[in-house]
Every structure is written in structure tokens, then in C-alpha cells.
Amino acid sequence: MHNILGVFFLLVSLSYGQTKMQQQEIVILKAKVKEQAKQTQTIASDFIQYKHLDFLTDDIVTSGKLAFKAPDLVKWEYVKPFEYSVIFKNENLYINDEGKKSDVNLSSSKLFKKLNHLIINSVKGDMFNDNEFNIIYYKTGENSDVHFSPKNEKIAKYIKQFQILFNKKGEVQQIKMVEPSNDYTKIVFENRVLNKKISDAVFAH
Predict the structure, then answer these.
(1) pTM surpassing 0.90?
(2) Is the dihedral of CA 24, 25, 29, 32 positive or negative?
(3) Helices (H) and strands (E) in the chain — how many of each?
(4) Which of 10, 105, 138, 157 could form a disulfide with 145 if both were Cys (CB 3.0 to 4.6 A apart)?
(5) Which residues are registered as beta bridge partners of 167?
(6) Of the candidates 83, 95, 151, 144, which has an alpha carbon nearest to the alpha carbon of residue 118?
(7) Using an 8 Å Cβ cutoff, are 161 and 145 in contact?
(8) How many CB atoms lie within 10 A of CB 189?
(9) CB within 8 Å of 66: residues ≥ 6 apart
């Protein structure tokens, strides 16, 4: 189970220059993000992932490519320093560890199904649900840094907080997922392209 959960921790906010957002700014941001998510059919992006573990001096750094296709196809493909891919498809999780393949049915677990849903929504940034999260909004220069803390106690056992950094267009620039231990995974997106045609073959397993 620990290995499976590690997949979900694929997903650092900038702490300097932060100020709380005003209510009108929050309204504008939410509208931008929701419109952006509504219009986004595909996302193709490079990423760099930083895995921070308290007992290690340096973060574990990996890089790869993200592919998203609406409504719920997501592929994380790691290329350096190792080859590893994870595909979320039809409530299943498909793992390819340098040619060694395995899969997990997420529908059999309400918790994993919910985590899968959160991962997909975090890629789009559309997580503004006050019933599910305690949400705090910050400004960092021209960017918006939003912290989502799950209200569901079962989820909170695995995820203390999502932190999503949006640019001024309402696009997701980076995701940080903090565990209860305060270890975290940060993903920074680069060369992000929206609505480029992505073949279903990309999500083959």
C-alpha cells in the first residue's frame, strides 16, 4: 500500500512576498481557473519533480512529461534519471517500471478513487470546493498561491495540503503536495501546451 500511495505523492510554493488575497481577487482567480479548466481538453507539459524527505540532505530530483486528456486520462512519464510511467485510466492505475508492468483497480477503494479524482483536478487546478477543503489564498507577485487542506479525515491521513501556484492567466505552474509528516512532493511545469492533439495511444498500457 505504501508503494501505491507513493504514486499519489507525485504531486514549493514560494514563501517570499506573500500576502493574503482580497475577496474580489479571489472571485476573479476562481473565474479564470474555472474558465481555463472548462476550455482545456488536453495538456502536454514537461515537468521537474522534487521529492523532499526530512532525513535526506538533498531533494530527490526527477524529470519527465505529463499528458492529460479530458475528462480523466492522465499520464506521468519519468525519463530522468530513470524510466517510469504512471497512467490513470478508467478508474485503474497502470504502472510501467522500466518494462515491469502492474496495475491497480482504484474503483474498489473509495479512498484511492477520491485521491485519483484529486490528482486529476490538481492538474487542471479546479479544486475550489469549500465543502471538501479549507482554502487559503495568497498573492506572490503576479501569481496566486492557493492552499487546499482536505476536510475528509481519511484523506488528511495521507495528504495534509495541496498547494497550487497559478500564473496570471489562471494556469497551473506548479503543484506541491504535503504529507502529514511535512515531507512533500513538488512538481514544476515547463513548456506547458494546452489543447494540442494527443492520441489515445499515448495512454496505452
Answers:
(1) no
(2) positive
(3) 4, 12
(4) 138
(5) none
(6) 151
(7) no
(8) 18
(9) 43, 44, 45, 46, 47, 74, 75, 76, 77, 123, 189
Contact in structure between 173 and 155 (CB atoms under 8 Å): no
Distance CA 86, CA 26 (A): 33
Per-residue cell: 175: 503543484
List per-block mean pLDDT (blocks of 10 residues) for the chain, which spans 205 residues.
50 57 94 89 95 92 94 91 90 88 80 75 83 92 92 89 91 92 94 93 91
Please tell me the distance from the alpha carbon of residue 161 to that of residue 121, in angstroms, as a whole number.
14
Q: Where are the beta strands (DSSP E) in 24-160?
A: 42-52, 60-69, 73-80, 84-89, 92-97, 100-105, 133-140, 143-150
The position carrying cell 489543447 is 195
Based on the number of CB atoms within 10 Å of its own CB, is 69 exposed (0-12), middle (13-18) or buried (19 or more)?
Answer: buried
Using CA atoms, how far apart are residues 87 and 75, in angstroms rounded to an integer? Answer: 4
Would you list the DSSP string of 158-188?
T-SEEEEEE-TTS-EEEEEEE-TTS-EEEEE
